[in-house]
C-alpha cells in the first residue's frame, strides 16, 4: 500500500495528501516532521537525505519533493482525471506548480511563521507585513488567469491547481489583510466543494 510520511499541517505534505485523496487512493499515513520528529533518524534520512516531508513509498519506489509526488500520483493513478495527456495543456497546468513553489513559498514562510508558527514574542510584524504584501502582489497573476478559465489546469480541475490551492487555504484562513480577488475567491469556493480538498487541506495550520 502507498505510504505517505509527513505532518498534516505542512503545506507541502497537504499537496501529497490531497492528490492521493482526489485519486481515492488508500494509503498509510506516517506522521513525521516538526514536533513529531522521525525526520532526523537514519531510517528516514535513507528515504530522504534532505530530512524533509513529504516522502512517499509506492511499491518500493521512494519519492520526495511535493510537486514531483503530486505529478507521479497523477501520472500513475490519475490518467483522464488529474493527469492531462496533451503535453502542451499539461505544461500549461504544471507551470502553476513551479510558479507556486518559486514565487509564493518565500512570502508564505514569512506570513505563516510570523503569524502563527513562532512563539508570540519571536514574531516580527515587519517580516509578516513583507510577506503579506509580496504574496498579495503575486496573486494578481492567477487572479487574471482565473478570469478566463475555471481552473488553473484549464477547463477541468487538475494537478496545476494543487499547490496554489494549498497556499490559498492558509492565506484565506490566517488573520491578515487580503485584497479583493473575485476570480481567485470563486475558484477557492469551487475547491472547497471538493471532498478531497475539505479532507486533506482544510485542516489546522498549526
Ligand atoms: N521542496 C520540498 C520542501 C519540503 C519542506 O520544506 N518540508 C517542510 C514542511 S513544509 C519540512 O519537512 N520541514 C521540516 C519538518 O517538518 O520537520 C517539497 O516541496 O517537498
From TrEMBL:
The keyword Endoplasmic reticulum does not apply. It comes from the Bacteria. Belongs to the GST superfamily. Residues 1-81 form the GST N-terminal domain. InterPro entries: Glutathione-S-Trfase_C-like, Glutathione-S-Trfase_C_sf, Glutathione_S-Trfase, Glutathione_S-Trfase_N, GST_C, Thioredoxin-like_sf. CDD domains: GST_C_2 (cd03180), GST_N_2 (cd03047). PROSITE patterns: GST_CTER, GST_NTER. The keyword Ribosomal protein does not apply. GO terms for molecular function: transferase activity. Keywords: Transferase. PANTHER family: DISULFIDE-BOND OXIDOREDUCTASE YFCG, GLUTATHIONE S-TRANSFERASE-RELATED. This is Glutathione S-transferase. It comes from Paramesorhizobium deserti. It holds the Pfam family GST_C. Residues 86-206 form the GST C-terminal domain.
